[in-house]
Design a protein that fits this description.
The complex is a heterodimer of chains A (116) and B (112). By secondary structure, chain A is an all-beta fold. In chain A, 0% of the residues lie in helices and 51% in strands. The relative contact order of chain B is 0.33. Chain B has 112 residues and is mainly β. In chain B, the strands form two sheets. In chain B, strands 2, 4, 5, 9, 10 and 11 form a six-stranded mixed sheet that branches. Classes of the chains: A mainly beta (116), B mainly beta (112). At the A-B interface, β5, β9 and β10 of A face β5, β9 and β10 of B.
């Protein structure tokens, strides 16, 4: 199993450009999450999904959109990138059947995004 | 607002010593905590977790202690090795869809 993978690993955008970050997991996990990590800070939740076709806002959702058309994929979109969105983005997934709260979140390797 | 935070941003230890990383939380209703290790250029990796009905939990070379009275938890690493060098985060699972709230992290530097 590859676990959680993220594409691309690095990206540089100009202000106003758009892009989509792809997260894929091959563990048949139900829940998926997108976080951002800024220098010297912990991870903050952007959006999450509890199943195919469902998404919800996290702590810092503004400026981002997400989609979960397939169970194994969770996409994060930036419609009009801003310098404040320069960050490292992490995707995570967890099995979580029947609402169990002790399932481990497995993280991808991250995407480093710079917006000029 | 309610948050999970860390006391020290950087901890330097000698190889073979024991390390203690601390974390404070402010939500007295919090009942489940996780420690993650993040190596440079990688995503966080699960180390150990603890629920509020426990005071202590042990893993391989790691122990987590929870003091609900002062809302504090710590991660103890025995016989610290160079491979333990990383940033360590405590995170609170705030129920509802397994969402995590992360602290700012502590960098552990292990010197030979």
């Amino acid at each position: 199993n590859a676990g959680v993978t993220q594409t691309p690993k690095f990206r540089v955008l100009k202000t106003g450009q758009s892009m989509t970050l792809l997260c894929a997991q091959d563990m048949n996990h139900e829940y998926m999450y997108w976080y951002r990590q800024d220098p010297g800070m912990g991870l903050r939740l952007i959006h999450y999904s509890v199943g195919e076709g469902t998404t919800a806002k996290g702590e810092v959702p503004d400026g981002y959109n997400v989609s979960r058309l397939k169970k194994q994929n969770f996409l994060l979109g930036l419609e009009s990138a801003a310098p404040s969105q320069t960050s490292v983005y992490f995707c995570a997934s967890t099995l979580t059947l029947q609402g169990a709260r002790t399932d481990t979140q497995y993280f991808g390797p991250g995407t480093r995004l710079t917006v000029l | 607002g309610e948050s999970v935070g860390l006391h020290l941003p950087t901890l330097s230890v000698q190889e073979g010593d024991n390390s203690i990383i601390n974390c404070a939380y402010s939500n007295s209703a919090s009942d489940y905590f996780i420690w993650y290790k993040q190596e440079s250029g990688k995503g966080p990796q699960f180390i150990i977790d603890i629920r509020s009905n426990m005071d202590k939990r042990q893993g391989q070379r790691v122990t987590v202690l929870l003091n609900k009275t002062v809302k504090h938890l710590s991660l103890q690493i025995a016989a610290t090795q160079p491979g333990d060098s990383a940033v360590y985060f405590c995170a609170e699972n705030r129920g509802g869809y397994n969402k995590l709230i992360f602290g700012a992290g502590t960098r552990l530097a292990v010197h030979p």
